[in-house]
Amino acid sequence: MNEKQLVCLACYEDRLASVFDNADEFRFYQVDEDGICPAGHLSLPSKDPMDRTSAILACGVTTLVCGALCGRTERQLVNAGIAVRPWVRGGVEEVLDAFVRGSIESLAMPGCRAARGDATWPGMGRCRSGNGLGRRRGAGLQGAAGCRAGGVLKKKMNGGN
Amino acid sequence: MSFPKDLPFEDVLASIADGVFTVDTDWNITYFNEAAERITGIPAEEALGQKCWDVFHSSLCDGSCALRECVANSGVISCKSIFIVRPDGQKVPVSISAAPLRNADGEIVGGVETFRDLTELQLMRRKVEEHYSFEDIVGRSEALDKIFRILPQVSRSEATVLLLGESGTGKELFARAVHNLSTRREGPFVAVNCGALPDTLLESELFGYKAGAFTDAKGDKPGRFELAAGGTIFLDEIGDLPAKLQVKLLRVLQEKVYEPLGGVKPVPCDARIIAATNRDLETLVAEGTFRQDLYYRLNVVTLRLPPLRERREDIPLLVNHFIREYNTLQDKNVQGVSEDVMALLLRHDFPGNVRELENILEFAFILCSNGFIQLEHLPDSIRPLKSADVLAEGVGGTLEEIKCRAVLQALERNEGRKMATCRELGISKDTLRRMLQRCAETGAETGAE
């Protein structure tokens, strides 16, 4: 990976918020060929999804990882060029670890796991993470980040905090 | 009263229409009934053993959990209105009730939450109250998305908004959405159709009058501007506003004051103005029938609402929306439209836009009360497109028509989702857009024949 990526996790306390709209904090991480390291955070007093979308765009985020996300907000983010990986759950470190290893699908929320192939349950198509542009960019990110050992992440994380 | 021991407890819970789930003290789901599966869109086997917040995705799940509150306070919560987000990305309004669960020794061993889908109730309430919001505008097309992106910011400003669009594109719906997203949302929304009233009546309707202003004016009458104080006034068909009233409206926009008929002093105006027209105001200005200075005052933020033919990918979504609405309002059980009907709708030009589509489906609901709406349920007015009929039957046609048919059918299969359609057809988004444009052009030519 040559270019730096700014990944945003929509968090509640030390885990991903179950719903993007509920997140009380955005945590930012810079991802490059050296690994992933913290790049700041943003407290979110406003619950308005539009404010959140604006904040993500203003901060230069390239990838958003979050929990449940309504279709309209997701489309706005994707159309704005953000790679969106919604319907993910887990603690912050667990999510970052899975992200850097390219295995974030393993943290899919219940109801989203059977999304590939046999989408027989209502709504399965939607929660397949990373629609459109987001999916393509996310895939590229994963591939590159996956080349790096998880140890790089841990070292950077501990040092960064 | 205790529950009879010989009754099948699970069958009883499975039979009720409300969603029910239980959790243990670690917030892992231990029971998830069939209604819960249906409302959340998550199968029980995937929900069981998972943290409740990873399954329920409610507006309370991160920090305001109702179950946690019940367990902590040993209390009960009843009929709290919240929303959940389903895996298909839909926000679903629900009413929840929660209570702690105790074992035989009275110790809390978890909690139970029941929830009721309020979608239909909300739909009916909105229909009655016309309280539409941003979320009620159906569509995910690029043409609409451009408006969605700026609508919240526009709404929060105090700027005058000019909505331009053909008849039936939903100008009032957008105006209501702007009002409901604004800081004036608690205030009134007053709509006036400037083309529907004679000049003299329109003046008194808009600005009100004082006692003695004319022969029958026995007392003061507030105008729509006064009624809209603290809220928004929506001036529809502004292009039809007579010259005399254009001057008065200009004063409102410039000085925020107006004078009621027979009044002797100006009254301050505290209403945000949203104007709309399906006419070309620039042409009216050039012709001298609409004041240029008023046009510039109105033209602060202009939103051009796309006609339905420029956002055909939204047709399947709109069809589903209206079918759900009419099923609720008319207590029917129509499942959807047949493939033939959808193909026909996707090819139709809709000169009357969304309103025409709504009218077509309302007509179909008269003839069809369950199952799928078929071609014979549609009004004759939508049938003359011969080429469309050929396509609907799935036979023959030029190469261009066959391509169109493939694209439109794929779009229908994917419920209007363009990216999914692109993936299915193995084409880029640009190619899809070009093909849809060509389909529209072909359809227009056919219709003209």
Written overview of the protein:
The complex is a heterodimer of chains A (161) and B (449). Chain A is α/β, with parallel strands linked by helices and 161 residues long. Chain A has a domain at 5-107: 2-Layer Sandwich (Nucleotidyltransferase, domain 5), CATH 3.30.420. Helices cover 36% and strands 20% of the residues of chain A. Chain A is built from six helices and six strands. Chain A has helices at 49-58, 71-79, 92-101, 124-127, 132-145, 150-160; strands at 5-12, 15-16, 25-32, 35-43, 63-65, 83-85. In chain A, strands 1, 2, 3, 4, 5 and 6 form a six-stranded mixed β-sheet that branches. Chain B has 449 residues and is an alpha/beta fold. Chain B has four domains: 9-122, PAS domain (Beta-Lactamase, 2-Layer Sandwich), CATH 3.30.450; 134-306, Rossmann fold, CATH 3.40.50.300; 313-382, Helicase, Ruva Protein, domain 3 (Orthogonal Bundle), CATH 1.10.8; 399-442. Chain B has helices spanning 9-15, 34-40, 44-47, 52-56, 66-73, 119-129, 142-156, 171-181, 199-207, 224-227, 243-255, 281-287, 292-298, 315-330, 339-347, 353-367, 386-393, 399-413, 418-425, 429-448; strands at residues 19-23, 29-32, 77-85, 91-102, 108-117, 161-164, 189-193, 232-236, 257-258, 267-268, 272-277, 301-304, 333-337, 370-373. In chain B, helix 15 (339-347) packs antiparallel against helix 17 and helix 15 crosses helix 18. The longest helix of chain B has 20 residues, at 429-448. Chain B is globular, with a radius of gyration of 27 Å. Classes of the chains: A alpha/beta (161), B alpha/beta (449). Chain A binds chain B through residues 12-13, 17-19, 21-24, 48, 50, 67-72, 74-76, 79-80, 87, 89, 109-114, 121-127, 131-132, and chain B through 40-43, 46-47, 50-51, 53-59, 61-63, 85-91, 135, 140, 142, 145, 148-149, 152-153, 417, 419-420. Chain A: This is Dinitrogenase iron-molybdenum cofactor biosynthesis protein. Chain A: InterPro entries: Di-Nase_FeMo-co_biosynth, DiNase_FeMo-co_biosyn_sf. Chain A: It holds the Pfam family Nitro_FeMo-Co. Chain A: Residues 14-100 form the Dinitrogenase iron-molybdenum cofactor biosynthesis domain.
